[in-house]
Amino acid sequence: MKSAFLPCVRTALLGLALMFSAASAHAQTFPERAVTWINPYPAGSASDVTARLFADEFSKAIKQPVVVINKPGAGGLIGTNAGATAAPDGYTLLVGAIGTHVFNPVINSSTNYDPVKDFEPVSRIVSFPNVLVVSSKLGVNTVEELIALAKSKSASEPLLYSTAGNGTTSHIAAGQFERLAGVKLTGVNYKGTPAAVNEVLAGRIDFVFGNINVILPQVKAGTLKALAIASSERYSLLPDTPTFNEVGMPEMEMVVWSGLFAPAGTPPEIVKVLNEAANTVARSGVLQPVYESAGATLEVDATPEDFAKLLQADTAKWVPVLKEMGIKAQ
Questions:
Q1: Into which CATH architecture does domain 32-127+255-325 fall?
Q2: CA-closest candidate to residue 114, choices 264, 219, 13
Q3: pLDDT of residue 9
Q4: For a FRET experiment, which of 36, 210, 224, 316 has its CA 20 to 30 Å from that of 242?
Q5: CB 304 within 8 A of CB 275
Q6: DSSP three-state, residue 263
Q7: CATH homologous superfamily of domain 129-252?
Q8: Low-confidence residues of the chain, pLDDT below 50?
Q9: Mind telling me which PANTHER family this protein's record contains (predicted)?
């Protein structure tokens, strides 16, 4: 007597085979129409400008239009949630960032997405190095001198640092610096990096961690002095500025990146197609000089798995720091 179980097994296996065959066939023809990128940050921001530059080249690689739409608000939560809940078919991607996928889940209790479970990493597309700069009038020329000055201050009159806003990379970098240097500092939050840098220029604030594209003109003009850069290597536009690793503070390294994410459940074959398109953009060599002139670095991961590993590493590094600092979204 034949078991009734065997036909069920055959039916299930046939169904799986058909499903994988359909997914493979879809990947071979993907994409067949325009792809939308959701940017959770405002139009004109560094993330927006570089994403649009990348999208133009990405469109050529996939031979379909790429439409970038901005959905800012709530520190990136609105746009990121829209990316998480989009159809998992590869036609809607999120331009996520270290802020949306590492910082927000810790500092913002309103975060309504899981940065790992709700997304499929595709590839980074850009990074921005933060630079520690002081007013040229402060009278310090090195990180060591800045720390010595901070230690000489009384508790009632500590050095002041400005940030681009509560929970931003400039805020977190300054908090990490205070923690590692063993000094007492006072932070003042502003709305955006330009405002934070302007306060240092005006002499009302002592230092700031600023995006290189914002601080570079003032450093070149001599009104700001760059003490160290939070990247793994010296930057071509600031060749005389040491990395934090060179000054004995390797924990200060922070790669501020933006990258593409697909909604969870997107077929891996399609994620691979998208990653390969990003690598095609990188190999073309078109964007690197454009990015560098804007103070950014072209960053593309060879595989989606490489991007996932970087996300895991950043989470392991920064989540304990954020919890110790006690930063909460306001």
A1: 3-Layer(aba) Sandwich (3.40)
A2: 264
A3: 53
A4: 316
A5: yes
A6: strand
A7: Periplasmic binding protein-like II (3.40.190.10)
A8: 1, 20-21
A9: BLR1237 PROTEIN, TRICARBOXYLATE-BINDING PROTEIN
